[in-house]
Design a protein that fits this description.
about 350 residues; 11 helices
Length: about 350
């Protein structure tokens, strides 16, 4: 669902930068008030890297000629909380944009809103927390009920928040005046395909969170307070498993990613084996502007592995290197975000103590 700059006018792009920036500011402000647990830093770094690697693996949506990939907002917010989850998603999307030219730089604010805000904030506060705190599935026992609630919250959260993200893409392009994209037809293509993509993401998210619950239940928000529920693995072992999974996914499984266009590309350009859909010319569509041209020039300078490959090379090694390098960069960026948050908390504490 990474939007290209051609889908947005500068005014809409600027508005979405302001919206995502405001959400980031609120997140930083709220995190200053939190007492972070000792495991937050390594969990934030590892989980962010895992989401980056997961986003590299497109899975085929049968019978459509389309594919989808993990968004990760629900996964990160369940592990880190909505604020830290949102900031982690910002790190993922920014590194994808700058170093791998995935998604337009002018469109980065919109991509952060569409792919991170809904999953992290609405997914957490409207679905994850209410479901996990509820008395649903009480007859299954404490562990059984927790497992069932994780699955339900993951499936509902991923499908519904991805629907909101898909709708936002259509709305943003419409407000931008991309006249070759009729609102109704674009919406009719985007919503069903992202419903299918969201269901698969929900299954993946629930599988990861179920593993974490069995290994170290205290890592999951709202479930960490369960009494008498112990994990089957140490924190160190759990994080090592997730690190190994990240490297295997980013460096290996990414080579098996579907070549079909993702839901947004499929809606815009179609797939010659199935349908033309809106049938836009992939090389010449949408809007042009001086701002978009300047943003593209910046990306051309910063992208070390454009499109997750070596420049002017089709070598599969480029994909593997991209998966590993990107995961490391994202982990480092998430750790930096955490460190800055910790510094702000210490300063606030020092100020309060001096009064």
């Amino acid at each position: 669902m990474h939007m290209a700059d051609a889908l947005l006018s500068p005014a809409v792009a600027a508005t979405m930068y302001v919206a995502s920036g405001a959400a980031a500011g609120v997140s930083v402000h709220r995190l200053r008030k939190e007492d972070a647990a000792a495991h937050t830093l390594p969990t934030m770094a590892v989980a962010s890297a895992l989401v980056f690697a997961g986003q590299m693996v497109n899975y085929t949506i049968p019978g459509t000629g389309s594919s989808g990939h993990l968004c990760g907002g629900m996964l990160l917010s369940a592990l880190l909380g909505p604020e830290a989850g949102f900031l982690s998603m910002l790190a993922v999307l920014t590194i994808q944009c700058l170093f791998f030219a995935d998604g337009g730089l002018m469109a980065l604010g919109a991509n952060c809103w569409n792919m991170a805000f809904y999953g992290c904030f609405l997914g957490y506060y409207c679905l994850w927390r209410p479901i996990v705190r509820s008395r649903l599935f009480a007859g299954l026992g404490e562990r059984g009920a927790a497992r069932a609630k994780i699955v339900l919250a993951s499936l509902l959260g991923c499908t519904l928040t991805l629907q909101l993200g898909a709708f936002s893409v259509v709305l943003e392009t419409s407000l931008s005046g991309v006249t070759e994209l009729p609102f109704g037809a674009f919406l009719a293509l985007m919503q069903p395909i992202h419903l299918a993509i969201g269901l698969v993401e929900g299954a993946i998210t629930s599988a990861v969170l179920l593993f974490v619950y069995e290994a170290r239940p205290e890592l999951l928000r709202e479930l960490s307070a369960q009494k008498g529920i112990s994990g089957k693995m140490s924190l160190k072992s759990t994080l090592i498993v997730l690190v190994v999974a990240t490297l295997v996914i980013g460096g290996g499984i990414s080579l098996l990613a579907s070549a079909n266009p993702d839901g947004l590309e499929w809606s815009l350009f179609g797939n010659e084996d199935y349908s033309e859909n809106l049938g836009l010319d992939e090389e010449d569509y949408g809007l042009t502007s001086d701002v978009a041209s300047a943003a593209e020039a910046v990306q051309n300078q910063t992208a070390i592995l454009p499109d997750y490959s070596f420049a002017d090379s089709d070598s599969a090694l480029g994909t593997s290197v991209s998966g590993i390098v990107g995961s490391v960069l994202v982990a480092a960026a998430a750790a930096l975000v955490y460190a800055l948050g910790a510094l702000l908390r210490r300063r606030k504490g020092a100020q309060a103590a001096s009064k």
